[in-house]
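Internal tracking record. Fields below are filled automatically when a chain is submitted to the structure queue. Please do not edit lines marked as system-generated. If the sequence contains nonstandard residues, flag them in the REMARKS field before resubmitting.
Queue: standard
Priority: normal
Entity type: single polypeptide chain
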Amino acid sequence: MRVVQFKQVDVFAECEFGGNPVAVVLDGEDLSDAEMQKIARWTNLSETTFVLPSTETGASYRVRIFTPGGELPFAGHPSLGTAHAVIEGDLARPVDGVLIQQCEAGLLPVRVTEGQRSRRCAVRVPAAKVGKPDDATTDALAKALGAAPRDDLPPRAIDVGPVWLIAGYADAATVHSLRPDYALLTEICRQTGATGVTVFGAEPVPGTATPDKPCADAVFAVRSFTPIDGIAEDPVCGSGNAAIAAFLQAGDALPARDYAVSQGREVGREGRVAIHIADDGSIEIEGRALTRIDGVIRLD
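SYSTEM-GENERATED OUTPUT FOLLOWS
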């Protein structure tokens, strides 16, 4: 019987059992592609990662990222959760507070701030490829989501590793009220080559985050749908929020260089994502990560 070390890490979690869980297999070197995919289907989380020795100079470690349906070149919360697990498992240590993650999207820096039982991690996402608005896709999304997106910021496909169709709404209340037709969303994703659909709407009056209300400073409410990968609604999506930032950059509509969003209320796992825009326009997503499960997976 083979045994691999395993952690389940909550990412973007500001309260107990909040945020988005990611499964991290710390010793994936001897697993085949088929075994990795089988484990990802078994965990049934939005993503499962497998840590491998780095093969590029300067990388702290290498990671492969799987959904229940296939492999991704990059994903947000899996990158943050893996960085936390790698440090906790003593597989790599930050240099000047930074790890370098090797993944299919390239070498990506991950900033790490230590805390009690948890860490705040921030990853610079791959440069976004911004698609052009398409009337047919806009109409299809309005039908599938049950409400028409904003006219002034028509939906676009944003490629940050995963490809997200981004749709903006006037307010958070509309976002919370959406009742998607998942069959239609799946068909839209198949036709456009998208990984999923992420929607956002402005919160009424952002306040100040406190321990009791950690998401009170959120500028937007966000939801992400990935039924094509077997996950109807992703609790809190890092790459989806990075894609929103790129979408807003393209429309000259960023609310600020640094802002926060809330996501996950509809699935009972509310979390907070911080977004930072650097001087060169690169996008960084940040969130809290802590281990919820620590053990092994036994393989036949």
